[in-house]
Amino acid sequence: MCKGLAALPHSCLERAKEIKIKLGILLQKPESAADLVIPYTEKAEKPAKTQKPSLDKALQWRDSLDKLLQNNHGLASFKSFLRSEFSEENLEFWMACEDYKKIKSPVKMAEKAKKIYEEFIQAEAPKEVNIDHFTKDITVKNLVEPSPSSFDVAQKRIHALMEKDSLPRFVRSGFYQEFIK
């Protein structure tokens, strides 16, 4: 049970953020009945039904976050690992930026940019990523006129952070060890 703010366990804070997001969704006027559905995301995602990567490929992930992120099994396992540590916001931000770069319509790009900013960049965002003020300022300036590169600086910082911090922890985890047995 969550007691006093100072003694809140990490899981209580995460649960509070999740409730805040769900309440925010409920308070918005839905455009269709499909908008009323709140996805249940507590279950670990399973990789697509593809062949398990070879030992050689899995061993390459130790030294290359990019190779890990390009492999469906690696990505799903990395995501599950980060979720188990309550630190999946960096990967989710990185993935949102990758999706954002694929948008062609300026209107949809502006909408997605606003959503990414509100979810990951702005102060007190539900999944706020840890970027310095300089990077945040550059990103905000880039969003005045959204382009495919609007989040590039922030995305590179988060990629570097995952490579330096999350990847080594993942490699030591049971999630990764399953691939190299």
Automatic annotation (TrEMBL):
It is found in: Cytoplasm; Membrane. PROSITE patterns: RGS (PS50132). GO terms for biological process: negative regulation of signal transduction. Keywords: Cytoplasm, Membrane, Signal transduction inhibitor. It comes from the Eukaryota. Residues 64-180 form the RGS domain. It holds the Pfam family RGS. The keyword Cytoplasm applies. Its main location: cytoplasm. SUPFAM superfamilies: Regulator of G-protein signaling, RGS. One of its GO terms (cellular component) is membrane. Inhibits signal transduction by increasing the GTPase activity of G protein alpha subunits thereby driving them into their inactive GDP-bound form. Binds to G(i)-alpha and G(o)-alpha, but not to G(s)-alpha. This is Regulator of G-protein signaling 5. It comes from Monodon monoceros (Narwhal). The gene is RGS5.
